[in-house]
């Protein structure tokens, strides 16, 4: 093999290696990296949003400090996941019995355009009476979604209609407003009530 | 002449129809446990759930849904990604293997009912027609359960 040819091949190999390393960096640590998964929601005291509950009262995250909380996102034009989540939560609350009365249970809409205060009130009246429905301006909803490190996205479905992709996990906080855990949509439902009890107990032991 | 031709074509069409129904995909299909949740008015989309059992020896393909309760009805699939974000999209055709059962249930496949023509009222029912790839059909009555219902047996 000619010396010049060898140098040529070596350069090509080194070049390919560098390219592979660069591509790896770009996708794992660099600008091409996916958004960090599983970021913890902020503490309630650090969240900054103002919304309106289904009775028309002004509310914010600090309103929730003092009791353990279950918070989840959804929208009332959601035919499958949201009524299923709300009916699951209604069952958990019934299983908790009297302890359910010690919780805040908050459904925050990701679709304020259609989910007015009246729409939220009509919708949640079909589920466990302790559940509250919060809505507000798009900007304030976006700040709430950000505070919980959740996601929501408007997706057109044709003929001017749209649906919302959104985080379906239920967020659990202790009475001090500190994040405890989530109940994910796809996890076995029998884990839910013990997790809620843990959030209640965590509050009692400090 | 035209009259005779019409009669001939009608007989041919009927015979064709009969031969289809003899070999139809729908003959091997059993649909069970069809239910839906009650709605608030008609502005929001609804969902219907059911199980489809293929009792035959061949693959069967569900290609569409018809109903008079909604202007548009399609099979959609809800899915949740590893970040916990749920989304919903048309599921396309549903292929059912011999002796297999496909369940349309909360959080997965469902019949999406868009443009409700009347409110879905608890205790009432509506008809849904499943259309298969050979054009054969199965109609099923869907019970409307409570707004927070979890299934036909709960």
Quick check: average pLDDT of chain A?
88
CATH homologous superfamily assignment of the largest domain in chain A = Glutaredoxin
Tell me how many strands of chain B there are: 10
**Largest interface chains and counts:** A-B, 33 and 28 residues
The CATH topology of the largest domain in chain A: Glutaredoxin
Order of helices and strands of chain A: HEEEHEHEHEEEEH
CATH hierarchy: architecture of the largest domain in chain A = 3-Layer(aba) Sandwich
Number of helices of chain B: 1
Q: Uncertain regions of chain A: pLDDT < 50 for 5+ in a row?
A: 33-37
Element pattern of chain B in H and E: HEEEEEEEEEE
Domain tally of chain B: 1
Strand residue content of chain A: 15-25%
Helix-strand category of chain B: mainly beta
What composes the largest sheet of chain A? 5 strands, mixed
The residue fraction in helices of chain A comes out at 25-40%
Summary keywords:
heterodimer, A: alpha/beta, Glutaredoxin, five-stranded mixed sheet, two-stranded antiparallel ribbon, 36% helix, elongated, B: mainly beta, ten-stranded mixed sheet, 10 strands
Overview in brief:
Chain A is α/β, with parallel strands linked by helices and 206 residues long. In chain A, 36% of the residues lie in helices and 22% in strands. Chain A folds into 2 domains: 34 residues; 162 residues, 3-Layer(aba) Sandwich (Glutaredoxin), CATH 3.40.30.
Task: Characterise the protein shown here.
Chain A is α/β, with parallel strands linked by helices and 206 residues long. Chain A has two domains: 1-34; 44-205, Glutaredoxin (3-Layer(aba) Sandwich), CATH 3.40.30. Helix content of chain A is 36%, strand content 22%. Chain A is built from five helices and nine strands. In chain A, the strands form three sheets. Chain A has a five-stranded mixed beta sheet with strand order 5-4-3-8-9. Residues 33-37 of chain A have low confidence and may be disordered. In chain B, strands 1, 2, 3, 4, 5, 6, 7, 8, 9 and 10 form a ten-stranded mixed beta sheet that branches. The relative contact order of chain B is 0.26. The longest helix of chain B has 22 residues, at 2-23. With 154 residues, chain B is mainly beta. Chain B has a single domain (2-145), classed as PCu(A)C copper chaperone (Immunoglobulin-like), CATH 2.60.40.1890. The mean pLDDT of chain B is 89. The termini of chain B are far apart. Chain B is 14% helix and 49% strand. In chain B, a hairpin with a 4-residue loop joins β9 and β10. Chain B has one helix at residues 2-23; strands at 29-37, 46-54, 60-67, 70-80, 85-90, 94-96, 101-104, 109-116, 125-132, 137-145. β7 of chain A pairs antiparallel with β5 (85-90) of chain B, so a sheet runs across the interface.
